[in-house]
Design brief:
By secondary structure, the chain is of the alpha+beta class. The protein has three helices and three strands, in the order αββαβα.
Amino acid sequence: MSVEARLWEALTEVEDPEIPISVVHMGLIVAIAYDAGVVDLKLTFTAMGCPAMEFIQDDIRERLLAEPDVDEVRIEIVWDPVWTRKLIREEARGRMRELGIVA
């Protein structure tokens, strides 16, 4: 498994603090690039005023730094592409329905 694949898998453990669904399955991770211990991650949010932005970034950074090949995590917030419900993965939709949230 490549380092980038492991990073994607690791991020499935990071949940949105408002909805217990991973940031990957919510479609918040736009891109990950890895080079020589440095992760460059592009992240979006469901809304510009998301009150959990700092928490999510801290959780992502903490989880990725727990990986053996990661020394630094650089997070860039991007708004293009704009997040829409279409970015929610199917596995998250099922969990959201269980929680009574329309997905």
